[in-house]
Amino acid sequence: MPLALCASSHSPLIGLHDPAADIADEVHAQLAGARAFVEEFDPELVLVFAPDHYNGFLYELMPSFCVGAAATSVGDYGLPKGPLPVDRDAAYALARHALESGVDVALSEAMQVDHGFVQPLLFLFGSVEKLPPLVPVFINCVAEPLGPASRARLLGEAAGRALAESGKRVLIVGSGGLSHDPPVPRMESATPEVAERITHGRNPTAEQRRVRESRTVAAAGEFASGSTDFHDLNPEFDAFVLDAFESGDTTAFDERSTDWFVEEGGHSAHEIRTWIAAYGALSTQGDYEMTRRYYRPIKEWFAGFAVTTALPKATALPKATALPKATALPKATAQPKELAAQ
Ligand SMILES: O=C(O)CCC(=O)/C=C/C=C(\O)C(=O)O
Ligand SMILES: [Fe+2]
């Protein structure tokens, strides 16, 4: 079965709180390169592993993993709002296979997703209208307690095996990471108001969303100006993570505790679980080759920002080189606000 992978960081601050233009251009050129890779592969199905940030999954009922048989973007941080094109049969097949493999995924017929899913898809496909059929798979990366990271690998491997049966060209997307610690609330330290929001606060008003999002932008400003109230980015840790994926060692995190991720990379480093699942899925088809590896710590985006692509070794193309800046994509905030009817 033809498979290809793109794993990338996301940041809701892209386009809202940018670093110097040459740095932002460099990242957009890398994302444009990943998009060219995807265009050449021409996927018939896209498997997306992504987290949520208390928009679609709240403490009212928090699964470790959830497969979406239907999904809607909540439209946070200026991204498009509305239904996404989900391949329902493929989603059920994946859920069945995962459950039979002993991975207890939840299933949703009405999954709400946020920038964690939508932003990388827009970078890779340009607009919601151009998205191929998707299978969105949520991985809890923020709401403690979290299970061991090895479970994300097992989930990814089950998904990879399930999609092997589809016979389609499948793009695997991992969205998140690497070291970063933006102000995503934690139940342990939440005020009663925040605890209520992360338990029952689905579908905030436009004004509530604006207040939340402007707080994130303000916090990024403080972090970039040198505030030490946040866990710093950790390029050495991020290099270790990227080396593991590049070497094909998808089990590298099996013995690492959840505390290790936080100590090394901050709370949102748990988003690396989406990469573990994505590379785990790819690894089911044999050895792979990382064909693109880009990394830069960017405080304005609260992110150790990375973009990678990979192919099974049998189909690997020559390594990608950086594309000229002129090929950079429009920024995420330039996307239309409402989606066309699906
Ligand atoms: O409620 C909010 O908006 C909290 C802030 C938030 O969700 C930040 C998210 C940041 C990322 O997704 C990231 O850097 O990975
Ligand atoms: Fe995130």
From TrEMBL:
Catalyzed reaction equations: 3-(2,3-dihydroxyphenyl)propanoate + O2 = (2Z,4E)-2-hydroxy-6-oxonona-2,4-dienedioate + H(+); (2E)-3-(2,3-dihydroxyphenyl)prop-2-enoate + O2 = (2Z,4E,7E)-2-hydroxy-6-oxonona-2,4,7-trienedioate + H(+)
Family to which the UniProt record says this protein belongs: Belongs to the LigB/MhpB extradiol dioxygenase family.
Class in the EC hierarchy, top level: oxidoreductase
Protein's job: Catalyzes the non-heme iron(II)-dependent oxidative cleavage of 2,3-dihydroxyphenylpropionic acid and 2,3-dihydroxicinnamic acid into 2-hydroxy-6-ketononadienedioate and 2-hydroxy-6-ketononatrienedioate, respectively.
Extradiol ring-cleavage dioxygenase class III enzyme subunit B domain boundaries: 7-305
Keyword field: Aromatic hydrocarbons catabolism, Dioxygenase, Iron, Oxidoreductase
Name of the protein described by the UniProt record: 2,3-dihydroxyphenylpropionate/2,3-dihydroxicinnamic acid 1,2-dioxygenase
UniProt xrefs under InterPro entries: DHPP/DHXA_dioxygenase, Xdiol_dOase_suB
Catalytic site positions: H115, H180
NCBIfam families according to UniProt: PRK13370.1-4
Gene behind this protein: mhpB
Assembly description: Homotetramer.
Matching Pfam families: LigB
Cofactor(s) needed: Fe(2+)
Pathway: Aromatic compound metabolism; 3-phenylpropanoate degradation
A molecular function (GO) term: 3-carboxyethylcatechol 2,3-dioxygenase activity
Enzyme Commission (EC) number: 1.13.11.16
